[in-house]
Automatic annotation (TrEMBL):
Molecular functions per Gene Ontology: lyase activity
UniProt cross-references to Pfam families, sorted A to Z: PEP_mutase (PF13714)
Keyword Lyase: yes
UniProt keyword annotations, A-Z: Lyase
Protein's name in the database: Isocitrate lyase/phosphoenolpyruvate mutase family protein
InterPro entries: ICL/PEPM, Pyrv/PenolPyrv_kinase-like_dom, Pyrv_kinase-like_dom_sf
Lineage top rank: taxon: Bacteria
Length: 269
C-alpha cells in the first residue's frame, strides 16, 4: 500500500533538471483526472482556478475549510502525488499556517506552494518554518515550494530584484523550504542566475512565449507550472461559446470539445 510518506518521497524525486517536472495545474476533480490520464506523474492545484470554481476571487479570499475539502477530493481521485497551492497559507499568522498544513497532509497532499505576495520577507520565512514544523510533526517529508513574487509583482528596484530574490530564497531555504518558485521571469540570463544562486529545485511559471520545458531544463530548472493558465483557457471557451450563441446563434466555439463519454468515464469507479 502506498503511504503518504511514499508519495512525498516520490514527488520530491521528480524535481530534476534532466527531466523537469511539468505541471498542468488542475482546479477540480475532473481536471485532475484529465491531467493524470495524460500521463502526468503528479497533479498540482492552482489557487486561482480553485478559488474561481468555488465562487471567490484569488488572493487569500477562500476559506481554509473549502480549500482543504477541494484538496481532499483531488487527492482521493488520483493515484499520483498531489501538491496544493495554499496561497499565503490560509492563516492569519504562522501558527495558522501550521494548522493549514496539518489539514493539507490529512487531506492527502504531499506538497504545497506558499507565496509571499507583498508580505515582508521575514513573515514569509516564518510561515515556511511553521509549515515545515507541522509537516515534521506529522512525520511527512512535505515538499514546500516557497513562492517569491519579486518579479511577478515588480517589487523593489529593477536592478536590485535579482539579489532580493536570491536573498528571500536563501531565507526560505533556511526556514525549511524544499524548493523555490519564482513566477514572472523566463529570460535566459535571469533564469541562469537564479539557478546558479538557489541551492534547491527552481520552479518557473510558463505559458505562451516561454522557452520549452527541455530548454529550461538545460538551464537547470527543475519544475515548470502552467499555473492558472489552463483554467483561464477553459473559461475563455465558456465566454466565447456564450457570446457566439447569443450574438450569432452558432456553436463553432464547441468544436474540439471532449466527448461526454470520455469525461464521464474518468469519474466512474
Amino acid at each position: 500500500m502506498t503511504t503518504t510518506v511514499d508519495l512525498a518521497r516520490r514527488f520530491a524525486a521528480l524535481h530534476a533538471p534532466a527531466a523537469p517536472l511539468a505541471l498542468a495545474n488542475a482546479w477540480d476533480v475532473l481536471s485532475a483526472r484529465l491531467v493524470e490520464a495524460a500521463g502526468a506523474p503528479a497533479v498540482a492545484t492552482t489557487s486561482a482556478g480553485v478559488a474561481w470554481s468555488l465562487g471567490t476571487p484569488d488572493g487569500d479570499a477562500l476559506s481554509r475549510d473549502r480549500a482543504l475539502d477541494l484538496i481532499a477530493r483531488v487527492a482521493a481521485a488520483v493515484s499520483v502525488p498531489v501538491t496544493a497551492d495554499i496561497e499565503g497559507g490560509f492563516g492569519a499568522d504562522p501558527a495558522g499556517v501550521g494548522e493549514t498544513v496539518t489539514g493539507v497532509i490529512e487531506a492527502g497532499a504531499v506538497g504545497i506552494n506558499i507565496e509571499d505576495g507583498t508580505r515582508a520577507p521575514a513573515d514569509h520565512a516564518e510561515r515556511v518554518a511553521a509549515a515545515r514544523a507541522a509537516a515534521d510533526t506529522a512525520g511527512v517529508p512535505l515538499f514546500i515550494n516557497a513562492r517569491i513574487d519579486t518579479f511577478l509583482f515588480g517589487l523593489g528596484e529593477e536592478d536590485e530584484r535579482l539579489d532580493e530574490t536570491l536573498a528571500r530564497a536563501a531565507a526560505c531555504l533556511r526556514a525549511g523550504a524544499s524548493g523555490i518558485f519564482v513566477p514572472g521571469v523566463n529570460d535566459v540570463a535571469t533564469v541562469t542566475e537564479l539557478v546558479k544562486g538557489i541551492d534547491a529545485p527552481l520552479n518557473l511559471l510558463v505559458g505562451p512565449g516561454a522557452p520549452a520545458v527541455a530548454e529550461l531544463g538545460a538551464l537547470g530548472v527543475a519544475r515548470v507550472s502552467l499555473g492558472s493558465g489552463v483554467a483561464s483557457a477553459a473559461y475563455d471557451v465558456v465566454r466565447r461559446a456564450a457570446e457566439e450563441l447569443l450574438a450569432g446563434g452558432t456553436y463553432t466555439a464547441l468544436d474540439g470539445g471532449l466527448p461526454y463519454g470520455e469525461l464521464n468515464a474518468l469519474l466512474k469507479g
